[in-house]
Amino acid sequence: MDVQTSLRMSKELRDRLAQAAEDNGRAIGEEIRRRLEASFGPAPSTSDPKTAALLNRIDDMVGSAGLMNDLPWHEDPLANAVLRAALPMLVPVVLGEPKAIEGRIGWAIYGKPDGSFPEPAEIARGWVAAILAAEREKGQKP
């Protein structure tokens, strides 16, 4: 059974959630629900901080891949290809050697105006850039 609740947030956060919901083709309530559910995923079990950081980033990407079209990453050919392209980009980030990964690619890019689709590596760069941007906003080191 679902319950309703109210939530107070800044206008900036609400605008960001609204944009993400639009990019993902969902209502803002559904976007919030999915993000909250994803945040309760299991934490990686390791005593090494770098390994934990890498596992957390992989977990973030796998969660994002599941938002692409409601299929697990291993059943979605595009999500699978994007994850394969993104994983090598994460290791230098965790080791404090981030490559020049700039910009943020929204979900709407999956369908370009001309009907074509970007290369998985292009989407992967966007995912890694989004993770780095979120960490900078939180004041965390990459």
How does this model look, in words?
The model is unreliable at 102-110 (pLDDT under 50). This protein has 142 residues and is mainly α. The chain is globular. It has helices at residues 11-24, 28-39, 49-69, 77-94, 120-138. 15% of the residues are buried. Helix content is 59%, strand content 0%. The protein is built from five helices and no strands. Helix 1 crosses helix 2, helix 3 (49-69) runs antiparallel to helix 4 (77-94) and helix 4 crosses helix 5 (120-138). The protein has two domains: 10-40; 47-138, no CATH class.
What is the fold's blueprint, element by element?
Blueprint: H1 11-24, H2 28-39, H3 49-69, H4 77-94, H5 120-138
Helix pairs in contact: 1-2, 3-4, 4-5
